[in-house]
Amino acid sequence: MSVKKQNKAYLFVKRLLDIVISVIALIFLIPVTLVIFIIDRFGDNKGPVFYKQKRVGKDHKIFYMYKYRSMIVGAEKRLEEDPQLYQKYIENGYKLPPDEDPRITKFGRFLRKSSIDELPQFFNILKGDMSLIGPRPIVEDELKEYGDRVDKFLSVKPGAMGYWQASGRSNIMYPERCDLELYYVDHASLWFDIKVFFKNIVAIFKADGAF
């Protein structure tokens, strides 16, 4: 499948905005990180502040995406050791409802519901692995959901905020999710990025599909 080439001027402005916004955001995140660090010293939350996971980026490049940790230490191993839970995880769009997910801490539920757990991705944006706006980065197992459209999906940088998120996030499963992400790839522009940004802000405040 042919891949649409994006305008160089658009990509330059997009990258410039990514750098400026992520630098400012990371400065403001210093006190937030300190508070979360203190909370993560106690009880069920005890463990590292950050969680990293392999994701697939532009042109199939593998990178580590960062989040504030919302799960218990060793969460992935716990998921893999429970076949029924893992099957439900796959069938539910590679997620589990928070009230059925034994891996998520109480504080982690708050982080996810408020989308605060996503904020460390500004570090990924500054590095250039991600952009502020773009399709959400996925794990390798999810690539099969895109079939022969996977190269098109991976022709752009993944984003911290995407059209799928703005449209309902975890309320929208595959294959509809693929269609929404690829709609963004086909229509990416500075104006559309601004529209997606504000739609995401509204979705965050509504906690729409956040878990």
Architecture overview:
It contains nine helices and four strands; from the N terminus they run H-E-E-H-H-H-H-E-H-E-H-H-H. A two-stranded antiparallel ribbon has the order 1-2. A two-stranded parallel ribbon has the order 3-4. It has one domain. It is globular, with a radius of gyration of 17 Å. Helix 1 packs antiparallel against helix 5. A hairpin with a 5-residue loop joins strand 1 and strand 2. With about 210 residues, the protein is mainly alpha-helical.
Topology:
Blueprint: H1 8-39, E1 50-56, E2 62-68, H2 75-80, H3 83-91, H4 106-113, H5 121-127, E3 131-133, H6 150-153, E4 159-161, H7 163-166, H8 176-187, H9 190-206
Parallel strand pairs: 3-4
Antiparallel strand pairs: 1-2
Helix pairs in contact: 1-5
Order of helices and strands: HEEHHHHEHEHHH
Q: How many domains?
A: 1
Largest sheet: 2 strands, antiparallel
Query: What is the topology, as strand order, of the major beta sheet?
Result: 1-2
Give the overall form.
globular
Average pLDDT value? 90
Transmembrane segments: 16-39
Domain Bacterial sugar transferase: 14-205
Family: Belongs to the bacterial sugar transferase family.
Protein name: Exopolysaccharide biosynthesis protein
Briefly say what this structure is.
The protein is mostly helical and 211 residues long. The protein contains nine helices and four strands, in the order αββααααβαβααα. It has one domain.
